[in-house]
Amino acid sequence: MKRAPLLSLLLALGVSHADARVRLGDTLPTHPWTSAGREVVVVYSHDCGDLGDLWSAVLASGLPVRAVNAENITSPAPGGLKAWSGPDATAFARALKVGAYPTVLLVQGERILNAWEGTFTGDLGLMD
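and the corresponding structure tokens:
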């Protein structure tokens, strides 16, 4: 049986949920940072629980990491990262249509290459 091209692409990119609302290929909404070529954006809220493993994995990627603390209750990012928070950060998350926190985005040139909503195994799918 031959797979549909879009389904094959989604499986190859590692999207874990068929109902993910963040759309691959979309551009990021307005944000306060200067974009790097390829970067990781972590959108989280105060009620995500322990994100130690998530932060360790994204920081180990070697890519620039952007922390977005949504939902207007301050929750710190790990040392060395300044989280963007407040109403504009929440508006950013809502413009992305984030379905679950934390959401990890692999972004290149302002376009979303991959997204993990609510679950992240630590594998960004980057070739070593």
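(Above: one complete record from the training split.) The radius of gyration is 14 Å.
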